[in-house]
Design brief:
alpha+beta, 6-stranded mixed beta sheet, 30 strands, about 15% helix, flat
Amino acid sequence: MSPFRNAASGGSALSLLSPTSPREGDRLTFRWTTDAPHAKNWIGIYDGDRRPGVGSSLVWSYVTDASGDTTLDTTGLGEGTYTAYLLAKDGYDILARTEPFTVAFRPPVTPPHCAVDSFTTGACAPGTRVSVALGPLWIRPEGNASGTPSFRRLTGDSWLGVSSDGKVTGIASAGPRSRPARITVAVKDSAGGTDTVTVQVPVRPVSARPRLTVASLNLWDAAGNVADAHEKLLRLILGQGLDAVALQETGGTAARPLADALGWHACDSAAGVGLNSRFPLSEIASPPTADVPAVAATLRLPGGRNVRLWGAQLDEAAYGPYALRAGRTPAEVEAAELGTVRHRQTGALLAAMRSDLAASRTAPVILAAGLASPSHLDRKGRGAVRWPVTVALGRAGLTDAFRDEHPNAAREPGVTWSPARGDEPQDRIDQVQYAGPLRVEGAYTLCTGWPRPVPDTAGNSWPSDHAAPAVTFSLR
C-alpha cells in the first residue's frame, strides 16, 4: 500500500507494510519516516473516518526514531475500515497517515472432525464380512491439513472392531436382531481435533427382500458453488442412507473422489453424468455424449440380484416453463418442446435403453435423471401441457416413482427446481423412473437446511441448486 503524505509535515510518511490484505487477528506492520523525530512521536489506529483527537485510538505505540518498522497487536480489531496515523509529541498533530485499509472477517478455524456423527451401512447377511473405512471421512479443514487421525473402539457389539487407522471390521453374527449392530469409535487427530462416530450395521435375514435407495443429484458445476461441498455431499449421502446416486454436472471427474471417500464404487463420463454406488458396478456403458448424455451400469446386489441403473442429464435450453410464463399457450409450448435438443435426446436415450427395458420383466431398470422438463402427470385438465419428454418415457414402459407413490400433485408437488433460485418456475424436473419387478417403498424429495438464494450460496448446507428426488425400492 502506498504511503499517504501529509502536506503540512513535509518529510513524513506512513504505510501499511504487511499484511497487504489483513484479516481479523492479524498483527499489522507499519513503516514510517519523518524529518521531525521525537521520543514521544506515536502511531495510532482509528476506525472509520474518525480522526485523532476524536475519542481514543484503538491501538497505539511510540516510535522514537526518524524511520523504521513497527508491529502493532491488532487482534482486538473486528471487521471494518481503519486508518493509521503518525502523530507528533504525544499529541494529535498529524505528521502522516496511511490510506484507509480494510480488515476482513476471518472465518473461525474448524478443527479436524468426522464428516458425520453416525451413519448406517448397507444391510449384510449373517456370516458376511463387514469392512468400513472411516479414515476417508475424516475432514481436515484448511489450516489443519497436516494432522493424522488415530481411531479406537469405545462401545458396541462385540463382533465389531476398529483398527488404529479407522477400518471397522467383523463377521456379522447370526440370530434375530431388532436393531442394527453398532460400534462407537473415538478419533483423535495429531492436529488437535477429537470426535466420535457411530457406525450402524443392519444384519438382514437371508430370506429378506433386497432394498435399494436411489437418488438423482445435480452437483451444480462439479460442486463449485458451495463451500466445503465434498464434506456436505458425504454428509448428505451417509446421513440420508442412500445406496446409489446418479450424478449430473460432475465435470467428468467428481464422481470418483466422492466414491473413494465413501468406500463405494463409481463411474463417470465425459458428458458429466456419473454413478456412485455402495454395490459393485459392472457392464458400464456410456453412450455417445452428443446424442445421449447418460451412463449406465449394473448394480450387483447381495443375494445375486442385479439392477440396471441409468443416469442422464438432458439439455436445458428452451426451458418450456419460461415460454408458459411469457404467455405462450400450452399447445404452442408442446409444439416447441417437440423441436428441442432435449426431446431428441430423450429418443436417443430410450433407444440406448431398449434392450434393458425389453429385459426388465426379470431384470429391473431404474432411470435417475435431470430431465430439464416438468412432468405431464403434475398438472392435468384443460390448459395443461403434455410434456413430450415424460410422455415418451411413460410410453417406453417407465413408471414415475414419485407420482406413483404420490398421485395427488397438488398435495405433493415434489418440486426440485429450484431451492436456490426463487425467481424460477417451481417444477419437478429431476425424477427417478423405473421398470420391472420393483416395489416403491417410499418416494420423496431431499433438500436439507434452508438454502440461501443465488448468489449467496457459499454457506448453504445443501450443495446444489436442485433438490434431489430419492426413492426406496424393494425387489420383488
